[in-house]
Design brief:
Its EC number is 5.3.1.15. Belongs to the D-lyxose ketol-isomerase family. The chain is an alpha+beta fold and 228 residues long. The protein has one domain (3-226): Jelly Rolls (Sandwich). 17% of the residues lie in helices and 38% in strands. The strands form two sheets. Strands 1, 2, 3, 4, 5, 6, 9, 10, 11 and 12 form a ten-stranded antiparallel β-sheet that branches. A two-stranded antiparallel ribbon has the order 7-8. The chain is globular and about 50 Å long. It starts with a helix and ends with a helix. Bound molecules: fe (ii) ion. Fe (ii) ion (FE2) binds at residues 104, 106, 111, 173.
Length: 228
């Protein structure tokens, strides 16, 4: 993706989020220079990889295959290992109309995916076989706002604003906005997106960036080079 395209998506996404009365934390609006100047006090942001995350899954066609995310909080893997403490994470995301987040599952993370407003959120689901691979025939059972829902393999759960689903690590899922763009909340287990996403197709999790203008704000995938 070109940096100019990412900057445009940042501006559009911030306006879309604000249109629902949801406001990002102050560090969202710091410039790259300000992030660098404050590096000494933001280890909590850098190590938890909080912030902007725009991906086209390395495929170069954001409108068709992509996702906007902003990680607002993310706990400590060490706390999860010891069984107490900051074991949670939260993201806000946007799926545009018919913009696919491709079929994947997680190794560690359970996640509640919440329609926070806008259009319908469509989620296609499969179960895992004993080896963790996508099972093309097994039915899927999930909880949607505490209500048990059964779906056939590849069934599509549609969430209206206010509705959510709890996805456990074995639940394969792909999702997109249906009938318009959707603001999506995610409340989950502490999460490392560099290692916890298993995609059905060989695909990247982060965008390859062509620097054609200065970044408006850093993405989490910029932290290693900009604020190491
Ligand atoms: Fe997921």
């Amino acid at each position: 993706m070109k940096r100019s395209e990412i900057n445009t998506i940042l501006r559009h996404s911030d306006a879309f989020i604000r249109s629902f009365g949801h406001i990002l934390p102050p560090f969202a609006y710091w410039s790259p220079r300000e992030m660098q100047a404050r590096r000494g006090e933001i280890e909590g942001i850098v190590s938890a990889r909080l912030g902007w995350d725009i991906t086209d899954y390395g495929q170069g066609d954001f409108a068709r295959l992509g996702l906007f995310l902003f990680t607002t909080r993310n706990g400590r893997a060490a706390d999860l290992a010891r069984g107490g403490g900051m074991c949670y994470a939260e993201k806000i995301m946007i799926s545009r109309e018919n913009q696919l987040s491709p079929m994947h599952r997680h190794i560690v993370k359970a996640e509640d995916i919440i329609n926070r407003g806008g259009a319908t959120l469509a989620i296609e689901m499969f179960s895992s076989d004993a080896a963790g691979a996508l099972d093309p025939t097994a039915p899927v059972v999930v909880a949607s706002d505490g209500v048990t829902k059964g779906l056939p393999a590849g069934g599509i759960l549609r969430l209206a604003p206010g509705e959510s689903v709890t996805l456990m690590p074995g639940n394969w899922h792909a999702f997109w906005g249906e009938g318009g763009d959707v603001l999506i909340g995610e409340v989950s287990t502490v999460n490392d997106d560099r290692t916890d996403n298993i995609f059905r197709e060989p695909i990247g999790r982060f965008a390859d960036i062509e620097e054609d203008e200065d970044p408006l704000h850093l993405l989490v995938s910029d932290y290693d080079t900009w604020i190491p």
